[in-house]
């Protein structure tokens, strides 16, 4: 999905790996991202004429080209910024009453944001979104991009984040033949690549949460997933995460249900867990026999709360054995056998 691009683009830039966005535009080049960053920069520096021109009528507040022309004329005459020129015009009643109210509201908005007390750039961005009503002005996909920008600003200094985001948004993305291609699955049709990474294979993203209410829509998501898989000529990586920051909150994620439809012998599974503290191993080699797995793939089990399900995977050793069970009405659940209270059927 488009909002995932921010983290991937940031990582590629940090590693100085060239990339190109196909079938779309870079995350920081998107209009909604530039708009919100411009609000932030104007609140920080009210002499920023470029940012003011961008947001003075975004969302639409009825400040037209004629009014802006008067403001620019006043600014040029007095050799002041556009923001200062607006304040002068308001003092001397230099525009019609309707325009006065709109300009006054804009000045008050920027000053309210500028006077706020924020612990991080994320707090300031959230306040901008709330005070401007920007989310109501844009569609759902663009709103997800704005929320991703706010998540990226957590624990970041306001001035540093503002400068970095503005710099990135003004740069041309490195666009060479030998580069990583970024795209959504919808943009992949007809293309092939030696190596393909499909990122975000979690229920809620693939299939998308809105598709979960309809079997027809789930079937369409499955078809789209198949299209993405078959773009790979040589190597295909299917990746997902156990935790993801969505809408500024960390959420537990379940693997995409489509992964369970891939025959196990067709792929190799790698699970990355949190780093464990270093362990000093004895010189003497000790061989420990692992306890057999309690369940086999395909076994039917019963859970006291979720009912009957089918085991899709069993792994681990001893008391730490875990299973992934597909419950028809619930979906995939990852359970530790010590606590799951499962019953074999």
What features would you highlight for this structure?
PCRA, domain 4; alpha+beta; 11 strands; Double Stranded RNA Binding Domain; five-stranded antiparallel beta sheet
Please sum up the structure shown.
With 345 residues, the chain is α+β, with helices and mostly antiparallel strands.
Description:
With 345 residues, the chain is of the alpha+beta class. The protein has 3 domains: 27-170, Orthogonal Bundle (PCRA, domain 4), CATH 1.10.486; 184-266, Double Stranded RNA Binding Domain (2-Layer Sandwich), CATH 3.30.160; 300-344. Helices cover 39% and strands 16% of the residues. The chain contains 12 helices and 11 strands. It has a 5-stranded antiparallel beta sheet. Strands 1-2 form a two-stranded parallel sheet. A two-stranded parallel ribbon has the order 3-4. Helix 2 crosses helix 3 (49-55), helix 2 crosses helix 6 and helix 2 crosses helix 10. The chain starts with a helix and ends with a strand.
How is the topology of this model organized?
Layout: H1 5-14, E1 19-21, H2 31-44, H3 49-55, H4 65-78, H5 82-91, H6 97-114, H7 121-132, H8 134-137, H9 140-152, H10 158-170, E2 180-182, E3 193-198, H11 215-229, E4 232-238, E5 243-246, E6 249-252, E7 300-303, E8 307-315, E9 322-327, E10 331-336, H12 337-340, E11 343-344
Parallel strand pairs: 1-2, 3-4
Antiparallel strand pairs: 5-6, 7-8, 7-11, 8-9, 9-10
What does the average pLDDT come to? 83
Beta content = 15-25%
* Main pleated-sheet profile: 5 strands, antiparallel
Strand order of the largest sheet: 10-9-8-7-11
What is the CATH T-level topology of the largest domain? PCRA, domain 4
The geometry reads as: elongated
CATH class descriptor of the largest domain: Mainly Alpha
User: How many distinct helices?
Assistant: 12
Low-confidence stretches: 278-290
**What is the ordering of alpha helices and beta strands?**
HEHHHHHHHHHEEHEEEEEEEHE
Which CATH architecture of the largest domain?
Answer: Orthogonal Bundle
How many strand elements?
Answer: 11
